[in-house]
Amino acid sequence: MFEQHWSTIDATRLSDGKRVTLKKVEQSDHPNEVELALFLSSTSDPRNHTVPIYEVLSRQEESDFQILVMPRLRELKSPQFDTCGELVECFRQLIEVRLFITKLSIVNFSWQIAGIAIYAYSKCGTWVTFIELALDLH
Q1: Residue 2 — φ and ψ, nearest 5°?
Q2: CA 50 to chain centre
């Protein structure tokens, strides 16, 4: 089905026209990522800033990978923050999710800027950031 090597692409979900990001997860390389992403997506703790998972797609013919459907993501550095307050709030939420994941004893995730993508929106004048990290249990 997928001839080219890719990890994430942007798409539009046909059922509702919602802009989404599709993330290909190879089970042989990351056997726990889908399970972990679904677990974190179902956790309602306010410190949980991980990206919600809308659905998981898979095909029987290609059982080594699944596709996570999540909100449209962007790189942490794009677009640039308008104010110092936005930057501080984003990093506060990054630290908060790091502590939350550590409390759950989930380890071995990327903490590099290149491994972080965000989905952010304004809620009552406050930016809420959801963070997609390269996660895996070991």
Answers
A1: -105, 105
A2: 6
Phi, psi of 129 (to 5 degrees): -115, 130
Q: Which of 35, 8, 24 is nearest to 137 (CA)?
A: 35
User: Three-class SS of residue 96?
Assistant: helix
Single-letter amino acid, residue 68: L
Distance CA 18, CA 82 (A): 26
- CA 73, 74, 79, 80 torsion-angle sign: positive
pLDDT in tens, 91-138: 888 888 888 888 888 765 556 555 677 777 655 444 555 666 554 444
Q: Which two tokens stand for residue 101?
A: 């994941």
Q: Is 8-133 a domain of CATH 3.90.79.10?
A: no
